[in-house]
Amino acid sequence: MLKPIFALIDCNNFFVSCERIFRPDLNTKPVVVLSSNDGCVVARSNESKALGIPMGAPAFQFRDTFKRQNITQFSANFELYGNISKRITQILTEVTPRIEVYSVDESFLDLSELPVTDYKAWAQHVRQRIWREVGVPVSIGIASSKTLAKLGTELAKKQPELNGVFNFLGLGKPEWDDALQHTPLKDIWGVGRQLAPKLRAEGLSTALHVAQLSPRHAQQLMGIHGRQLVSELNGTSCHALEKQAVAAKSILRSRTFGEDTNQTYVLEAAIASLAAPAAYRLRNEHLLAHRVGVFANTNRHKPGYRRWVRAAKLDMPTNDTGLIITLLVDKLNEFVSAGQMYHRLGVYLYDFVPVGALQTDLLGYVQPNLADKAAARMAAIDRINQRLGNGTIYYAAADLSKTWQPKHSIRSPRYVSNWSELPVVHVK
Amino acid sequence: MNNDSRQTDGVSVHSGFPNPAADKTLANLDLHQLLVQRPASTFLFRIAGNHWHEIGIFDGDIAVIDRALSPHANDIVAWWNETHGEFELSHFKTVPEGGEVFGVVTATVHQFVRGRAQEGNGATGSASPHQTNTQNHKR
Question: What are the structural domains, with CATH classification, of chain A?
């Protein structure tokens, strides 16, 4: 059997990078992206990180800092991010069909069967290609396990001299140990905020410490997951690319938060990152979803367990990442409340039709290419509203009365999904 | 319904609606397929300014811009004009040094009739193919 080789392609500060595609003037300037409703920071440029803006920073507390430091703010433009994510996925799919879209800005590739000899050069080529063709900078980690590949991208981001690529393959023991030693616990894939304190209590503080645990001790500390973690950190793969099961009837992705949260930006970010692989899988199977939904629940082991489910039916089925995220974020906002601590969130897509089997609508809507999107969405929303009452689903930009709307005024144009908001090029 | 539409996944020019009553085996030519060779790297821009009307580029036209192509001297490119803080259209050979090229303009779309869709089938924002004049700029 071939020794597995994985690459993780991770987009740098993805939401910020998407905004910069059409705003090259911001390339070296501090930028933050805020969640669409409650104004928390969901993405930061390196310059903003350097200025000490923390992830999740509430905008109202940092407004003065933003102003003083000339930090450009954007409201999340998920239609744009979903579209850019899809373009990158498309390019990666041309590199190899063996891809697992892990989230809106991360994909694993299985390179075992690719005729590559120089993996660093290969990775630089992929990086250059995505930068040139889409305009998004990415970091790439290459290793014989997914955990190490992920760790590689973190190292690549921290050390500019690596030019965005870290390759574990062929690394000598000293360099290998050095890499793990420079990786704090929080950068290890699968070590969440719950596990980290437990490991710290054992005197472990870096990935190297974890890698040097005996499998048995690791299992005592972290269960079977710990045994696998040690093995993955030492270069033996325990996790293959996630297989895409045959002909799905529904697709569900969910995530338990490291810590219960009442932060809407965390929930929105979870939707964005869960919906992207779900939509990718739909496209991969040439399916369109008629219905999409979002659910969340509190911790069932704590008193006052509650669960919320909201679904939307689209008259025009879709497999478009940006559209699905936008709809689900709107649905989330119907029930989300700052007084609740959410434990888990999931998105699901169901009621599928194959692309091509559909020829019923007057608009002849067969494939959600972007040209159709604006019209199709408005029509779908209008019809849902007609059926269920106005305001069931609303178009964020169309609703000027909602309290969070002002934040939308700093949303960038829908450059790639609305004919009236295309970027402008001047003729002199 | 044709399978080609799959290849257009991800990008934009749209050209009229298929007639649902039409013979299903009859695949319509897809303008998007003609204009957008590489959906992943193609972006649409709106043109502002009439100074290039002599070569058939008008205010309000749509520019189809592909980032994957290496620009040749006579290609029309969109580049970022740092001084003015805006994208500008130029022949590649006249882009000043340091001007960052966004991509090569592969086509522009000029619509003679716009915003009268309500007279037709109720669709908005799209023109039928016979209302669209497409100009392919050869590289």
Answer: 250-399 (3.30.1490.100)
